[in-house]
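Let's practice the habit of predicting before peeking. Look at the sequence and jot down your guess about where helices and strands might fall. Then scroll down.
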Amino acid sequence: MHATAATPVIEFRGVSYDVAGIPVLSGLSLQVYAGETLVLLGRSGSGKTTTIKLINSLLFPSAGEVCVRGVPNRDADVIRLRRSIGYVIQDIGLLPHFTVERNIGLVPRIEGWQQNRIRARVQELLQMVGLAPEIAARYPHQLSGGQRQRVGVARALAADPEILLMDEPFGALDPLTRDELQREFLLLQQRLHKTVVFVTHDLREGLRLGSRIALMEAGRLVTVLTPQEFLRSTDAWASAYVRAFGDGLESAANRGVS
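Done guessing? Here is the structure:
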């Protein structure tokens, strides 16, 4: 899943973000390359979610520049930008009065796809995320947590975006369901090769899913390393994470990280 393209798909150039004069992000410079899964790893309040929201212009920098596909976000059509980026969040955000089919087909419908094309795409995606075809007619309240999260992933993929943003997508699930969805995500990424930015505070998840790990602390980028480099790092913050999540090494070993 390592990127080979020389030009980043997403780039932060000296980005800072303040709220009422209080810095949330400070001087962030970071590149995300085509086809990789960049994990933003850090404790609560480290700036991970703020970073991901700056990518699709849910927030705008106080200083610096965010570029997507080489275009500064300040020069982009915000609506087109957001529709071209898949977004998966922890609480899923499915519309409760829409069926699964209508939830998944929301962006394609806005984009003017024909109904038969939307229906075919919904069925394709349900199969892709491991859900039965009859799920399409159900409503979110009729689904389990794992099913709802799968629908959330399907919805984010509906219009085949190049970029996928995932903000703690599996954080609210029980351990067994979380493990299953992590495995399914890896299989999907091997098949689709999306450019993914994945937010988590869980070292085990980061080691398992990431091509590279960007460690954040107090609104600053500490380091960016591959999972293998992260485990071997003598950097103080990286070493602290490895010590704090010692059982993460077992998951890393299961994935083949050494």
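How did you do? DSSP finds eleven helices and ten strands in the chain.
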